[in-house]
Amino acid sequence: MGQASDRVFALSDGNSFYCSCERVFEPALEGRALIVLSNNDGCAIARTPEAKALGIRMGDPWFRVRDRATAAGVVARSSNYALYGDMSRRVNDVYRTFAPDVEIYSIDESFLDFSDAARPAALAREMRATVRRWTGIPTCVGLGPTRTLAKVANHIAKRFPDLGGVCDLTDPATRGGWLARVGVADVWGVGPASTTRLRAQGIETADQLAALDPRAVRPLLTVVGERLVRELNGVLCADLETTPPRRKGMAVTRSFGRPVTDLAEMQEAVAAYATRVGEKLRRHGLLTRRLTVFFHTSPFADGPARSVSGLATLREPTSDTLELVQAAVGAVRRLWRPGFRYAKAGIVLDELVPPEGAPRALIEPADPRREALMAALDHVNGRFGRGALAPARAGLRRAWALKAEMRSPAYTTRLPDIPVLRC
DNA sequence: TCTGGGGTCCTAGGACCC
DNA sequence: TCTGGGGTCCTAGGACCC
């Protein structure tokens, strides 16, 4: 099987993260059933436990559940990713005061190295309290000798509130009992397809999965599954990645608020995405050699279906907006067939390369509104004392005003209104 | 009659994640 | 009428080469 890990990993994540961010700015939402909606207010992508209890599921289309949900008292907010990104950075700043190494896994999840902690569970509880105090974000922490077990522990911490938001799976003696209470579908890396295959073999729970011979799992779940089983047994297969590896691909894709039936309109949209992806490239200090444009009709709609994608190769690696737009718009023209109601389009880049010579990441000019918003937060939370009511109220008012401003079109991701490009 | 074999590269598609 | 967006990794299979 391999050698047992002597490390301790913590996985800390923000509870209903997007919802919690909204609550930081709108304390009246505390305790209420709250959801955050995807782009175009399409569907629910974050739910508080109160909203889950009212039957709102992940991915529920808002137009379908709106009447029922609002009648039941559910509050919905449009998403604001710039804001969540800023909050995420603040939470990670706190993590870094508790652990020497932090791997930012996603906007709301980080792995931390707790190997040197004398009492990891106690440290985790203290960290939770500090994050809550300094940022306003509630978290849960899972502890384990591998990242996979830390992840399972985090899941358990969420499911069993009696644990006080911290679950410790570092002790092999008590681990099995917990794993028996976790379904295979809830194990990190086991999706719907793998769940079906495992169930067909009679494997229902995480402890049953852990009991399999890793080599026997390979034909069933590929090498990914093999590693997973080892990690469930406390054998380290992947360590922390504290410096993010160079990005391999990049995409800008959107669903349209309404069907697109006109070539010029599709070109407008895709030109806008090309502009966005150019900004993104420059922000990461990268160039691309080729881009793929795709668009398709809605999988939910009746009527003729069409899904196309086309590759455009650029003469030289570039992040130049005009070149990207021209390539993308040309691809749209080649791929275009009238008579369809297109619902979504996008640009996908792969083969990202650093520029010749010394890599230089362009620094994105800071948005003064966001800077001010975060400064305002400091007066509401944390280091400046949450008890100081007067400055807190002033700070909150300022924050609300800025947040309303950040809802302006410049911050949203709807299909933009830009001049038609004729090529 | 017997119809190579192994390597690399590329691409598409599946599966999974948050 | 309205059903998210952005990533990673793995595998299979075709093209190509010697």
Task: Describe this structure in a few short sentences.
The chain has 423 residues and is of the alpha+beta class. The chain contains 14 helices and twelve strands. Helix 11 runs antiparallel to helix 12.
Provide a descriptive summary of the structure in words.
It is globular and about 65 Å long. The chain has helices spanning 17-25, 49-53, 62-71, 81-96, 120-135, 147-159, 172-179, 192-200, 206-210, 214-232, 263-284, 321-335, 368-380, 389-406; strands at residues 9-14, 34-37, 44-47, 75-78, 102-106, 109-113, 139-144, 166-168, 250-260, 287-297, 307-318, 342-353. By secondary structure, the chain is of the alpha+beta class. Helix content is 42%, strand content 20%. It has three domains: 17-83, MutS, DNA mismatch repair protein, domain I (3-Layer(aba) Sandwich); 84-136 and 144-232, no CATH class; 249-394, 2-Layer Sandwich (Dna Ligase, domain 1). The protein is built from 14 helices and twelve strands. It binds a DNA duplex (18 and 18 nucleotides) through helix 3, helix 8, helix 10, strand 9 and strand 12.
Fraction of helical residues: 40-55%
Question: What integer value in Å does the Rg equal?
Answer: 24 Å
| Structural classification | alpha+beta
Distance between the termini: 60 Å
Topology overview:
Layout: E1 9-14, H1 17-25, E2 34-37, E3 44-47, H2 49-53, H3 62-71, E4 75-78, H4 81-96, E5 102-106, E6 109-113, H5 120-135, E7 139-144, H6 147-159, E8 166-168, H7 172-179, H8 192-200, H9 206-210, H10 214-232, E9 250-260, H11 263-284, E10 287-297, E11 307-318, H12 321-335, E12 342-353, H13 368-380, H14 389-406
Parallel strand pairs: 2-4, 7-8
Antiparallel strand pairs: 1-6, 1-7, 2-3, 5-6, 9-12, 10-11, 10-12
Helix pairs in contact: 4-5, 11-12, 13-14
The structure holds a DNA duplex (18 and 18 nucleotides).
